Amino acid sequence: MNAPAPRLRLPGPTAVPARVRRAMAAPTISHRGPEFEALLRACESGLRPLLGSANDPLFFASSGTGMMEAAVLQVAGPGERLLILDNGQFAERFAAIAAAHGLAHDLLPTPWGGAPDPALLRARLRDGDYAAVLAVHNESATGAVADLAALGAEIADHRALFVVDSVSGVGGLELRQADWGVDVLIGASQKALMCPPGLAFVALSDKAWRALEQGPARPAFFAGFLKARESAAKGQTPFTPALPQLAALREALAMIHEEGIAPVLARHRRLSAALRAGGAALGLASFPSSPLVSDTVAVFALPADMDGGVLVRAFRDRFGTVIAGARNRLAGRVIRFGTMGAVQADDIRRDLEELGAVLADLYGHAAPEAGLAAAERVLSA
Ligand SMILES: *Cc1c(COP(=O)(O)O)cnc(C)c1O
User: Fold this and answer.
1) Which of 57, 87, 250, 338 is the most exposed place for a label (fewest CB within 10 A)?
2) pLDDT, tens digit, 9 for 90 and up, residues 152-169
3) What number does the ligand 1 atom closest to the CA of 137 have?
């Protein structure tokens, strides 16, 4: 019962600050009263500048995947085709969702670790008529970041809607939905927004709202976006909302705005760079080949003699620290650390001390302090 909580260093769910946990313990309120409207408005207005959206986001009780599925069902139907920019695990999830619903879809493949190529997208859009193009902002499995501005510019002149999963980006990576031409932007609570899991949201552009208003009716009930927007106009949600999760989000957004969006993003960048530099000094190269590398997850490629599962277990057994390996085609070949949310420089220092010790123990690494020293150079720059 009294064992210390594990030190959670995953790329989601992430550690929840005490202030946010306390906000969740508030008494339950009516979801049809003025207190709820105030809560909803605080979440909408607090989130909008993080998303760079022209319109307020809609909230649903769901994990991120539920929102991905809802978005797919709102942008395409029978006889229409989706284009999925496939550079990793979560793009594959978009494809699995489309397949589960029998929706026609093409893949534009990119090797894992890379980012979708805008020039290849341009060529595809010239040849095909798509209802939507689906992309992942921050591929948490590989640490690659998509250039949403460049991709959005290719899509802008087509009827296709640009659907983006930024579940592990929102709050840790710059997002300018309106400027970048992102039509359907998907996020969730448990990554850089440092909230518990269970709340997802979606923000639609004017182009996306027009498509929903004027296009063919899309079958949806629980997560119908038009119905949700009608309720939101009245300060409500169509069904009972995840009240504690929204209270958590309001508090987390308050913390983010107190620190300032630009400083929050700069902290994510600095800490990620420090961790990558430390890993490199310990002989672990950064996995992504994409020119844009994640500021919310550090993914390390392991030399052939190392096994990710063994490292993950060693962190847990020796230090009570929970890092991630991979549960996909990279299983055993990478380890991943979350660098998003409430992470501070001391977390990164401890990560590297522990990594140095684990590598020395298991693989006889000679200079376990090299990682920390390299990180300090980035942190003090
Ligand atoms: C975590 C994550 C999701 C959502 O996963 P859930 O477990 O359904 O919340 C979706 N996309 C990306 C890129 C993620 O990192």
Assistant:
1) 250
2) 999 999 999 999 999 999
3) 13
Q: What is the mean pLDDT of residues 45-51?
A: 98
Residues 280-304 as b/e (b if ≥16 CB within 10 A, e otherwise) read bbbbbebbbebebbbbbbbbbbbee
Indicate the residue type of 246. Answer: L
For residues 315 and 331, give the distance between their C-alpha atoms in angstroms, rounded to a whole number.
17
Neighbour-count burial for 44-74, b at 16+ CB within 10 Å, e otherwise: bebbbebbbbebbbbbbbbbbbbbbbbbbbb
* 60, 92, 140, best to mutate for ligand 1 pocket (most atoms within 8 Å of CB): 140
Residues with Cβ within 8 Å of residue 346, at least 6 apart in sequence: none
Q: DSSP of 302-371, one letter per residue? A: PPTT--HHHHHHHHHHHH-EE-B--SSTTTTTEEEEE--SS--HHHHHHHHHHHHHHHHHHH--S-TTHH
Read off the pLDDT of residues 281-308 as tens digits, 9 standing for 90 and up: 999 999 999 999 999 999 999 999 999 9
Note the helical H segments in the chain: 18-24, 34-51, 64-75, 89-100, 118-127, 148-155, 177-180, 206-214, 225-233, 243-259, 261-281, 308-319, 345-363, 370-379
Alpha carbon distance 78, 198 (integer Å): 30
How confident is the prediction for the chain on average, in pLDDT?
97
pLDDT mean over 245-262: 98
Residues with CB under 6 A from ligand 1: 12, 63-65, 90, 136, 138, 140, 165, 167-168, 188
pLDDT for 1 equals: 55
* Residue nearest to ligand 1 atom 3, measured at CA: 64
Contact between 355 and 282 (Cβ < 8 Å): yes
